[in-house]
What does this fold into?
Amino acid sequence: MADYQLVIIGGGPTGLTAGLYAARARIKTVLLEKGVAGGQVLTTDWIDNYPGFPDGLSGFDLAEKMAKQAARFDLETRSGAEVVSMDLAGPEKKIFFADGSELTSQAVIIATGARPNKLGVPGELELAGKGVSYCATCDGPFYRDLEIAVAGGGNTAIQEAVYLTKFAKKVSVIHRRDELRATKIVQEKAFANDKIEFIWNSVVKEIEGDKEVTGLVLQNKDGRESKLAVQGVFILIGIIPNNEMLPADQLKMNKGFILTDREMRTNLPGVMAAGDIIYKNIRQVVNGAGEGAVAAMAAEHYLAELGS
Amino acid sequence: MAGENLKQLTDSDFDATIGSDTPCLVDFWAPWCGPCKAIGPMVEELAAEYAGKAVIAKMNVDENPATPGKFGIRAIPTLILFKGGNVVDQVTGAVGKTQLVAMLDKAL
It folds into this structure.
């Protein structure tokens, strides 16, 4: 007999929504979170596109409300539960933890999400937390009246560049193309902000500084190199999947993201995946949460078929 | 009551606290930082679990700008483990409890 009917791995909006649905379906469920509940949304300063909150709200508040809502229906949650590997092939799914313990479950929802991508350039690791940042809402206020740079051109990069002008004297956005991928309303705000300067067709080649960031080496599309003096750089260039704990020999994946069908089922019976960890184009809080609900209902259906 | 073991440090009592031979873990945070608030309850748990063995403390970087500046802190949450006034270990970001427990146990 397995320890649980359902294990949800990951406590971001997707996992919390899956947990809410599973708890309401009275499935014996545990949600495992390696750090603290919330996930990437915690690092978002302000969310204006999650429906039901007409004035918007902070990422922290949204995560907290989701966690509270799931807790209201008695979802069991373990924080600080770091999953290091799993065996998902058989009818009894095994989950292995960093502390050497393990648990078993009949069904699993993988909602491990993603984390910010790194540039992979010299100076980045050495100067992390000393001017190199991946979270504008966490670190922005340390750059009052300083000059900083943002690397990236997507929604996160441009939204956070605008946010950073609340503190910084000047924000240089370094983007490798000559146009932004960010949604139009976000672009409009950025173009209207006279503290933001755009450096097009360029990438960061190196981050310079000894004890803290002093500048960047940029490379233009035509190969020309230049220097930009800044005291900080925010690297917001997309995400990489949190897939290190997944059984790559069992799960079908593409580019490190899990392949699912429309019911969020993977190639393995009883294993669903949802949110930023799956292979898809759109990664928003709202569809992550929606997929969490679908995955929970797929799990419910699977368990019913098992007759458990 | 939650948090009774958790010490709130200020610029003025910082040096005296971290100068002790008892390991002291300081969580540098601010109210505007989501991940900082998210790890708050976990830091409180550590304070209760390590009561008498290590000092677990928090420092609000808005109200105490001098100390974070001295340690070059430009990202939060940053957690620094001190012993005898020296930096033993340091992590940035919303880390899990296991990582902090490992850090503390190594210093005890």
Summary: Chain A is about 25% helix and 30% strand. The mean pLDDT of chain A is 95. The longest strand of chain A covers residues 102-110.
